[in-house]
Amino acid sequence: MTDTSESTIEPLPAPVEKFILHWGDMGNHWGVNRSIAQIHALLYLSDGPLTAERIAARLGIARSGVSNSLRELVNWKLIRRVPMRGDRRDHFEAETDLWEVVKRIAEGRKAREVDPARAALKECVAAAEADPDVDGTAMTRLADMMAFIETMNSWYEQMLTLPKTSWVALISLGSQVVRALRPGGGSRPQ
Amino acid sequence: MTDTSESTIEPLPAPVEKFILHWGDMGNHWGVNRSIAQIHALLYLSDGPLTAERIAARLGIARSGVSNSLRELVNWKLIRRVPMRGDRRDHFEAETDLWEVVKRIAEGRKAREVDPARAALKECVAAAEADPDVDGTAMTRLADMMAFIETMNSWYEQMLTLPKTSWVALISLGSQVVRALRPGGGSRPQ
DNA sequence: CTGATGTGTCAGTCATAACAGAAGTATCAG
DNA sequence: CTGATACTTCTGTTATGACTGACACATCAG
Predict the structure, then answer these.
(1) Separation of CA B54 and C1' C2 in angstroms?
(2) For residue A163, which residues of chain B lie inside 8 Å, CB to CB?
């Protein structure tokens, strides 16, 4: 027996619990299931690495669910397995660099959903070009869509190559550009 | 009777149907229900404004669902009501400027989900500061999270004020910056 | 005023996905 | 080798929300 808690629910400080609940709900609206987001939030706020058992106890969810969720989180590289000396159990800790977190999430989503959609769109455009039933408007719109997605894609890929520090620089640069452009620096308002 | 189609399903060109299906699926993974995304895709590819009845016929879904979905889409300003001379029925057409589309979606999501989460986070930080049960690590992480969200928020708000043309300029500017920074322009690689 | 047409609302049904608990597998101490 | 511990996988249950079809309301022509 490593700990006193066997199947009881360990209480959490109220603000921490509130954060975890909100974070889980947020993830839920964003296509990430609640448990995964909650576990990530818990690990993010935790002092040190936690075991699956502790996580289950603190969140009040089944160990099996914790196991599955942890695997997902490791796949997304949002948490790490941390071996602890003298303890056979797996411990987990969260990535704490939030820039890294959003980057990883964006990477995952892009690879899983955006890239396939992009490929499908390419096929649609190709098929539409060869299909006399597709009218000119649809053809134009499909092409517009593809051009747009490609622009966003290449922009994103370039951003990925940047280190975090450059991101920060870019954002503040963006602010300056905004400030410079706001008074009417050469672009029409619409 | 305005048209020959009463309750039959109107066929769609294969590439168009494929696009609509993929788009709907995409939206589904992103927290938008499938019907809404499909209707938007259909309108986006349509030559002219469509009635609710036609949409239902072409997508093979119930008129009631179309009615609800159209209301949502109008609320999000992704489609417009278009009155047609000599026709009592409402016609709808999609916003075709894709920059506008992503902007509207982002605005909606921010207002509905990010802003409330931001407010909740603020409360959490405030409550945590007054709570002795919250350890230093959790306190630091919550503060980090808040700072991060605030940075992203103000950046986003500034971006919103920009016209589309400036967006394009910014993105290409970003590309130049990326190119300039890539060889090692002064930032550590990590 | 009245019938017809279009639109919005509602309650019931159904599909999907997350979850819990149990069973199975692997690893380690003694 | 054997028992115990940690972890994973599997299956049945449950809850959420999307969809349908029926109903109610509004609007317009005659």
Answers:
(1) 28
(2) 187-190
Q: What percent of chain B is helix, strand and coil (3-state, nearest 5)?
A: 65, 10, 25
How far, in Å, CA of A64 to CA of A85, rounded? 25
**What is d(CA B171, CA B189) in angstroms, rounded to the nearest whole number?**
22
Question: Of the candidates B18, B52, B84, B128, which has an alpha carbon nearest to the alpha carbon of residue A134?
Answer: B18
**Three-class DSSP category at B88:** strand
Taking CA B127 as the corner, what is the angle to CA B125 and CA B130, rounded to the nearest 5 degrees? 110
What is residue A76's three-state secondary structure? coil
Note down pLDDT in tens along chain A; length 190 residues.
Answer: 333 334 567 889 999 999 999 999 999 988 899 999 999 999 999 999 999 999 999 999 999 999 999 999 999 999 999 999 889 999 999 999 999 999 999 999 999 889 999 999 999 999 999 999 999 999 999 999 999 999 999 888 888 887 878 777 777 777 777 777 766 544 444 4
Give me the residues near strand C, CB below 7 A: A 33-35, 60-65, 69, 88; B 1-2, 51-53, 63-64, 67-68, 70-71, 88-90
Q: Could you say which nucleotides of strand C lie within 7 A of any protein CB atom?
A: 5-10, 17-22, 27-29
- Are A171 and B155 an interchain contact pair (Cβ–Cβ within 8 Å)? yes
Which token pair is A80? 């790490």
